[in-house]
Automatic annotation (TrEMBL):
Family note: Belongs to the uracil-DNA glycosylase (UDG) superfamily. Type 4 (UDGa) family.
Family matches, as InterPro entries: DNA_repair_put, DUF4130, UDG_Type-4/5, Ura-DNA_glyco_family4, Uracil-DNA_glycosylase-like, Uracil-DNA_glycosylase-like_sf
Keywords for the protein's UniProt record, in alphabetical order: 4Fe-4S, DNA damage, DNA repair, Hydrolase, Iron, Iron-sulfur, Metal-binding
Pfam family, one: UDG
Protein name stated in the entry: Type-4 uracil-DNA glycosylase
Top-rank taxon: Bacteria
Record keyword Transmembrane present: no
Source organism: Pseudomonas luteola
Occurrences of domain Uracil-DNA glycosylase-like (ranges): 305-459
Signal sequence segment: none
Length: 472
């Protein structure tokens, strides 16, 4: 067994490996030993062909790239594995670099982990401004990668930050960009480490305030979040210290709901008193944002009020906000909104001149994978009628268009039979014209293209009818 010593860089290993291959030294005869890292680590950044003019060694480009990546993987056997794969491939055993081979699969697994770590560095590095260099801002950042990826990852930031210079410090090395040249220092000079770790600046404080105010507890999914942004990076992110608190607040909110549900599901002795007697006297909420008339508010981002001019003569009622409406706080902003917008235009109307609202003001949904799936409102329609009636009293429209069965149920205080009974007819509702038509999401949902066109035409026809009722 011979001990082979080199400087610990990929370029150094490549030089030595080439000589060993030329002397036909088998992997099991070598023990690899590294000396402290030299600071020419950027020599590793470009995978170079293994052959030289004087060398007969040939290795595929793809292997050189894989070796270059895998060389950054921190593992006591990294140089031994790299040499074993190279040795086998050079001797004609191409399988050594394939995923089906034990060595090949290990090499690829390492390369993949390194690629991921490079992505982490690109995604989770946070520069802070620390003074100026040649009249331009100078930025610094601290990062703790799990593998030796700085040399491969740092060039990404060159020429991406205008004329600014920057420094990326890690526990092992530092990369410095002065606006023209990238240099790597290993180990990281102590002064640079301290500079990169220095406390927050105003930009970070602003970013933290923004992060906290836009964090949506209804959408927080700790598992997905930690999958994308491993916890080990939190401590170096300005928003990192906020995340545990924000997540735990989101979790306790969810747990409270879950506990309340399980209590209500417990069987118990029935006490024969009327509901009216046992109900505590509570003031009804006076604003839509504070509405607790049904439980939908607990899982919605916000209540979605109607919108439009207060003197609108045409009043359109949908069913309930969907995912997009719930996030944006405005009715008909998602796919159904686009169908409706098109129908409004084709009917010769303008969205801005109409009042658009929903029978139910909070989004009712159930989780489906990572999505929130719409659930048709039922018992929520009656309590929410309060808000619809308020809007009708305020706007006092001449014509109401009920888009679908939920809107009609809300107006009629009972479930309508079939929608087709009302379609295409102009009726009266409490002294106003009422037209009933399909909901725009029905147009999206209905199978067959012909039926879809028919439903869209019926929606447009209803809006044309409404427009004609308004004409002098
Ligand atoms: N569907 C509705 O009924 N209303 C909206 O606001 C969006 C989709």
């Amino acid at each position: 067994m011979r001990t082979v010593s080199f400087d610990g860089s990929f370029a150094g290993w490549r030089r030595v490996a080439r000589q060993l291959l030329e002397q036909d030294i088998a992997p099991h005869e070598i023990s690899w030993q590294t000396e402290p890292l030299s600071n020419d680590l950027f020599a590793t950044a470009d995978a170079q062909p293994l052959e030289t003019a004087s060398s007969t060694i040939r290795a595929p480009r793809q292997l050189a790239d894989l070796l270059n990546l895998a060389a950054c993987y921190r593992h006591p056997q990294r140089w031994a594995l790299l040499y074993r794969v190279l040795w086998r491939v050079v001797r004609g055993d191409q399988a050594a670099m394939l995923a089906g081979d034990e060595d090949g699969s290990e090499l690829r697994r390492w390369a993949k982990a390194v690629r991921r770590e490079i992505h982490h560095l690109h995604a989770f590095l946070r520069f802070k401004q620390r003074g100026e260099h040649a009249g331009n801002p100078h930025y610094v950042a601290w990062h703790e990668p799990a593998h030796d990826v700085l040399a491969l990852a740092a060039p990404h930031f060159c020429n991406r930050m205008g004329n600014s210079s920057w420094l990326i410090a890690t526990p092992e090395a530092a990369a410095l960009w002065d606006g023209k040249t990238l240099t790597l220092e290993a180990p990281c000079p102590t002064g640079l480490e301290a500079l990169a770790k220095q406390q927050r600046d105003d930009g970070e404080r602003l970013w933290m305030a923004y992060y906290a105010s836009t964090f949506n507890p209804a959408r927080a999914n700790p598992k997905v979040m930690t999958g994308h942004m491993p916890r080990r990076f939190w401590k170096d992110l300005p928003e990192g210290p906020l995340i545990p608190t924000l997540l735990s607040e989101a979790r306790t909110g969810t747990q409270r709901t879950a506990q309340a549900k399980s209590v209500s599901e417990q069987t118990g002795k029935t006490v024969p008193v009327s509901a009216a007697e046992v109900l505590p006297v509570r003031e009804q909420p006076s604003t839509l944002e504070t509405c607790r008339r049904c439980p939908l508010w607990q899982r919605a981002t916000q209540a979605v009020p109607g919108e439009g001019p207060l003197n609108a003569r045409l009043f359109l009622i949908g069913e309930q906000p969907g995912d997009q409406e719930d996030l944006q706080g405005r009715p008909f902003m998602g796919p159904a909104g686009q169908v409706l917008d098109r129908a409004i235009r084709e009917a010769g109307l303008q969205r801005e001149s109409l009042y658009l609202t929903n029978a139910v003001k909070h989004f009712k949904w159930t989780p489906q994978g990572r999505r929130r799936k719409h659930v048709t409102p039922t018992v929520e329609i009656a309590p929410c009628r309060h808000w619809l009636e308020n809007e009708l009293d305020t706007i006092k429209p001449d014509v109401i268009v009920a888009l679908g069965a939920t809107a009609l149920e809300s107006l009629m205080h009972r479930k309508p039979g079939s929608l087709s009974e009302y379609m295409g007819r102009v009726t009266q509702w409490q002294g106003r014209w009422l037209i009933v038509t399909y909901h725009p999401s029905y147009v999206l949902r209905v199978p067959e293209e012909a039926r879809q066109r028919q439903a869209q035409a019926a929606l447009i026809a209803a809006l044309v009818q409404a427009r004609q009722l308004l004409e002098p």
